[in-house]
């Protein structure tokens, strides 16, 4: 179990982090600005066509045509109406009176440019895996979006932060996209300081309610202890992902636990190496002690996984059936395996230690590799590890898990760390994707999940709960299980009266 740091070291970390911000530590001197400490720095220069899009969304600087409500249903965003047409097409009416931060208007040309760029991008944004999307203008204030096959969840798909609409000037040559002064949200992205931070100011010309906060000062702080220290010392007003080991050091009023549609999964390389053998994958399945991970690493602030889809999607547990014919176990004979993970999420290296012990006890010889995510992702996707521990959001993009399952477990999935390719799984995912939202679609999703679990190429370990830290003087911070929203126009720092 992670031990507590000595007070002197904690103080040092807090002092070092204070240097990441330009403003005073005192909320009285911040002139209405919110200080935010985030877990991971940008991986792709804050292009919206990568996971960096979720930073732009959480800062409310980039906006999408559609947004999702708490139930995952589509609601108006930059589009006010949408209706299905013939030939797998949808017509979307654009919101009038919207201007991008560079002063140019939201119109059909801007939307066509943004979505066409996303559709042609390599690699494709995850939300467009398996989707052949085309878009054209229908006058100046509407667009027609079509797909090669029927896509009943296209409105939800268009809510993904990876399909945010930026001004045309943001899209440069060779796939370079610059989000500075290019969004349409209540905050304007003014500066990006590499991987250290970003600065946003209130958008005085926002089409909706104006932001109450004067701006947002962002610092990227991968070290979880330092993030917790920033909250405790008043350096940060909102802190992403407080490690469970730090919770006891914080005022309970600062700690907010949010159940997440996020699964900590052990991916096994089913294409090459020892785990090409299904019997050895089954041995891993039997060796894993999930409760030990939840109790000792997450200090019971997580849920033991029964499948890939967790408590954030309660219908999954109601529909899930046990795998009917699990693969027989082949006893390990000391095979050497490489178990890898990344250090950006503080708990994962500790999970790796426990799993290494469990797999060693089962008869494997385990080598561990731990690096920062930016330095390990490419090797993981290339299948260079036998096993990889990943914390993965399951409904991050569309509010529906099909995109995640397709990306991670289909033959052509762009994030297929398990190197899994089974026609039966692809067919099951295609069947689920063709159904409209509702009970039939949910049953098809669980049927596809059962096939994936039966492969033993992905061993779900636990479902995470994110611990979000907030300054008690901050009002209106958002606690979003989908990790799309964090600060909006109503979020404001209210200093304590002298």
From TrEMBL:
Keywords annotated in UniProt = Signal
What is the designated name of this protein? ABC transporter substrate-binding protein
Which range is the signal sequence, renumbered to this chain?
Answer: 1-18
Question: What is an annotated GO biological process for this record, any one?
Answer: peptide transport
Q: Which GO terms describe its cellular component?
A: ATP-binding cassette (ABC) transporter complex; outer membrane-bounded periplasmic space
Q: Does the keyword Signal apply?
A: yes
Taxonomic superkingdom: Bacteria
**One GO MF term, please?**
peptide transmembrane transporter activity
Domain Solute-binding protein family span(s) in chain numbering: 75-414
List, alphabetically, the Gene3D superfamilies matched.
Dipeptide-binding Protein, Domain 3, Periplasmic binding protein-like II
Cited PROSITE patterns = PROKAR_LIPOPROTEIN
- Please give the organism: Duffyella gerundensis
Q: Does the keyword ATP-binding apply?
A: no
